[in-house]
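Archive maintenance. Older records in this collection stored only the sequence; we are now back-filling the structure field for every entry so that each record is complete. The fields below show one back-filled record exactly as it appears after the update. Entries are processed alphabetically, and Protein SprT is next in the queue.

ARCHIVE ENTRY
Title: Protein SprT
Organism field: Xenorhabdus ehlersii
Length field: 168
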Amino acid sequence: MKSVRVPLFLQQAVMRTLRQKLTHASHFLQQRFPEPHITYQQRGTIAGSARLQDWEIRLNPVLLIENQQVFIDEVIPHELAHLLVYHQFGQVDPHGKEWRFIMETIFAVPANRTHPFPVHSVRSKTFTYYCRCQQHELTIRQHNKVLRGKNCYVCRQCGEKLTLLEST
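Back-filled structure field:
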């Protein structure tokens, strides 16, 4: 896969926000935290992820470039909160009360579990499945799991098993 180069001004803005939030958390919790390693290797429609044991935050370079400041304002605190929760409480619910406390009380950022960014530029090929009430778009990963017999998906509305819409 071709890597996307994040402009230096965006990398600097990411680090500025990360350091500001980390300092704020250190003062609030009266504890020093190491600075996490930032990489720009997150792929697909995921904006970012926290690698807990590695103390690393992975960011999606395409979504960062396309959404810049709103990405930085929402995704950096979101992923940093995951690391801080793991450091303070160990293995707990990823978006549980501890995470929400850090997001809302310490960072003063809404505790949204998912991002609002358009994903058309990073979405991979999808496959159309259907049930009795609607069509569903499954990712290539989901589709391949169905083909290998590893997963079957069920509609949340009608409860029917999804079936591949055969193209003619």
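Update note: The longest helix spans residues 61-89. The mean pLDDT is 93.
Entry marked complete.
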